[in-house]
Write a structure and sequence with these properties.
The complex is a heterodimer of chains A (350) and B (321). Chain A has two domains: 105 residues, no CATH class; 197 residues, MetI-like (MetI-like fold, Orthogonal Bundle), CATH 1.10.3720.10. Chain A contains 14 helices and no strands. In chain A, helix 8 packs antiparallel against helix 11 and helix 11 runs antiparallel to helix 14. The N and C termini of chain A lie far apart (65 Å). Chain B folds into two domains: 82 residues; 230 residues, Orthogonal Bundle (MetI-like fold). In chain B, strands 1-2 form a two-stranded antiparallel ribbon. In chain B, helix 4 packs parallel to helix 7. The longest helix of chain B is centred in the N-terminal third of the chain and has 43 residues. Chain B is flat. Classes of the chains: A mainly alpha (350), B mainly alpha (321).
């Protein structure tokens, strides 16, 4: 055993400081919030006493100071969001029009670079491929499984199995799947499951992660593996929320399971379906960990988020990195608008 | 659908019985196909993790030369991989024990702060009347869609250079070193978590009965008192759900940690170290398999024991920014 607790003590001290800071900030805020109304109550009492003693008309009750309270309740959140998200996002937009060292304005150069460079074009195409494939495959898989296990025995256990990858980090998932894709020479025993299957079917083992464009597809499989559980849980809840009398009426009408699925289930869960597709699309747009851990973006597998990290934090090209980040943001917007329009439409229908 | 009611239900006793029997056979066949399909999917989904798990207990030369499925014909069990990857002296062995503590130190405050701040804000947005309330809510809600990539470069420079506006210093540079860098990671995680946290808690809080709130107000309870004694206990399940979300998000995060915690063994969490091992020692499977499990085991326990809350939270607000 070679583990020195003394090495770890500064970290644990830091954790202690963090917890003290938490207690002081949150506790202090709550105490302050308690003290303020008590102060106003006392002042009003004093006013009333003074007024009754002097025989003057009683002062009118002032409006409750909700605004003041709300300010205290909201202050930490609003402040942190401004410093941590709003201002940086605006700065990123500005940086995207500047050069790598953020000194000089370069206009649209970074954006022109993005669409001119072949390597980046590949990155954009890959991202597009991810955003089409992952939501489609993960949602289909999740829906299929939700329908299959609905009201089955051991439903809870069956769902947990599919759902479990949600708890695993993208890094962990990437390692799990790299092991599935592992390659050894032709004359050796395979240790990767995929190559073993290929070999036992009479094929030749391949270096899966090196061949473009198949490697991108294999990375997409990892993301589908993670996201299908999310789709399954949300869709399963939506299926269970379909009113029982509709299902019963359809069953009395003698519809087949197939018709039931297409004519009853699918239209009823449409809103949930849209939420799932939108959520997975947005998560997929930002995928980074999987690509970085499996191929590090080599062999034509890079995506926008990975390239953004490389440009900004490895090559010191803040301008180009920021332009990629802005482009990512721009790609999210139509998806969100689509969802908002759908929500409005639903509200109007109901 | 309603116009084409088949006569089965109003047929004679005899045909009725026959058709239900046929339907039952067909139903059983269908459900059998469904069961088989469900099992196939479940197996495909589970096997990659299972293979890694089995491998992590096999001796090094076995992992590297034979497939993990050979474990069942030739079982050899060892804990050496875990010993090596957690406590090994060799710099290349992983030394994950220290990184495990880093993950822990990063996660705890990064979960507590956003929950506390977001519950205060969500209460104000749900139950207090003030001008511009809806606009503040819409603003926070909309921030969910800003990818955190948009904030990374400037936020890092805020930490190293501080914030100044027209010569006035709003926030001094943090100038942290060593273990103090944790504060930077906590700050970043807290900021990035808030939009979703406020959104989720607002969903729960605004559904509390209005009568309850008004009764409390009439009784003279102040907002802070209502918040502490009535609202917080009632939304405890939501707080639990948010806690699990945030825990999984922070523990499993790679990007924020890479940028704000750096790669040193003083502050970097498990994910950063694992990604590094996978990059530089991609074929040292005895370390990668055991290491991956060291990082997976905590979230898996949390997740399996608190799954109910997690699912409820997921259904209440399934958009994470």
């Amino acid at each position: 055993m070679n583990f020195d607790f003394a090495d770890q003590s500064p970290k644990l001290m830091m954790l202690l400081w963090g917890l003290v800071a938490f207690a002081v900030v949150v506790g202090g805020l709550l105490v302050l919030l308690d003290a303020v109304p008590a102060f106003f109550a006392r002042r009003r009492e004093a006013q009333l006493v003074a007024a009754s003693a002097s025989g003057a008309p009683l002062p009118r009750r002032t409006k409750p100071r909700e605004g003041l309270f709300a300010l205290f309740f909201l202050l930490p959140t609003v402040l942190l969001l401004l410093i941590g998200l709003v201002v940086p996002a605006i700065r990123t937009i500005l940086l995207s029009f500047m050069d790598g060292s953020s000194q000089n304005w370069v206009g649209l150069d970074n954006y022109r670079w993005m669409f001119a460079e072949d390597a980046i074009e590949r990155v954009l195409l890959n991202t597009l491929f991810w955003v089409i494939m992952v939501p489609l495959a993960a949602t289909t898989m999740g829906l299929l499984y939700a329908v299959l296990v609905d009201k089955a025995r051991l439903e809870v256990v069956a769902k947990s199995l599919i759902f479990m990858p949600m708890a695993i980090s993208f890094v962990g998932a990437a390692i799990i799947w790299r092991f599935v894709y592992a390659y050894r020479g032709e004359d050796q025993d395979q240790i990767g499951l995929l190559n073993q299957i290929v070999v036992s079917l009479g094929g030749e083992p391949r270096q899966w992660l090196l061949d473009s464009p198949l490697n991108t597809l294999l990375l997409i499989v990892i993301m589908v593996w993670i996201q299908a559980g999310f789709a399954m849980v949300v869709l399963s809840a939506a299926i269970k929320a379909i009113p029982a009398d509709i299902v019963e009426a359809a069953r009395l009408d003698g519809v087949t399971p197939w018709q039931m699925f297409w004519q009853i289930t699918l239209p009823s869960i449409r809103p949930a379906l849209i939420v799932v597709v939108v959520t997975i699309s947005i998560a997929t747009l930002k995928v980074f960990d999987i690509v970085r851990t499996t191929t590090n973006g080599n062999y034509d597998t890079s995506v926008i988020a990975n390239e953004m990290y490389n440009q900004a934090f490895r090559y010191g090209q803040n301008g180009q990195g920021s332009a990629l980040a802005v482009f990512l943001f721009v790609l999210v917007i139509p998806i969100v608008i689509f969802q908002i329009r759908n929500l409005r439409q639903q509200r109007r229908e109901s | 659908m309603t116009t084409t009611t088949p006569p089965a239900t109003i047929g004679t006793q005899d045909t009725n019985k026959r058709s239900t029997r046929a339907a039952r056979v067909r139903g059983r066949l269908n459900s059998r196909i469904a069961t088989v399909a469900a099992i196939v999917i479940a197996v495909v989904w589970t096997i990659p993790t299972f293979g890694l798990f089995v491998s992590s207990f096999r001796p090094e030369e076995q992992i590297k030369t034979t497939g993990w499925w050979n474990f069942f014909s030739d079982p050899q069990f060892t804990l050496e991989n875990y010993q090596d990857v957690l406590f090994g002296q060799n710099a290349s062995s992983g030394q994950l024990a220290g990184y495990f503590i880093n993950s822990f130190v990063i996660t705890v405050p990064s979960v507590l702060f956003p929950i506390a701040f977001a519950s205060l804000a969500a209460y104000a947005l749900a139950w207090m009347n003030f001008r511009g309330r809806d606009w503040v809510y819409i603003g926070i809600f909309a921030l969910q869609i800003v990818p955190l990539q948009m904030a990374l470069v400037p936020l890092l420079s805020f930490f190293s250079r501080g914030v100044s506006l027209g010569g006035v210093t709003l926030m001094p540079a943090w100038n942290l070193d060593g273990a103090q860098n944790f504060a930077q990671v906590w700050f970043a995680h807290t900021c990035f978590a808030l939009p979703f946290a406020v959104f989720l808690l607002h969903n729960f809080m605004s559904q509390l009965p209005r009568d309850l709130m008004e009764a409390a107000r009439v009784d003279g309870a102040s907002h802070p008192k209502i918040f502490r004694t009535i609202v917080l206990p009632l939304v405890a399940p939501a707080l639990a759900a948010l806690g699990i979300f945030q825990f999984l998000w922070v523990w499993n995060d790679l990007l924020v940690a890479l940028i704000f915690a750096g790669g040193s063994d003083v502050t970097a969490p498990l994910t950063v170290r694992l990604a590094e091992l996978a990059g530089t020692r991609g074929n040292e499977w005895q370390r990668l398999t055991a290491g991956a499990f060291v990082s997976i085991v905590v979230p898996l326990i949390v997740f399996l024991s608190l799954q109910r809350y997690f699912v409820r939270g997921l259904l209440a607000g399934s958009v994470k920014g």
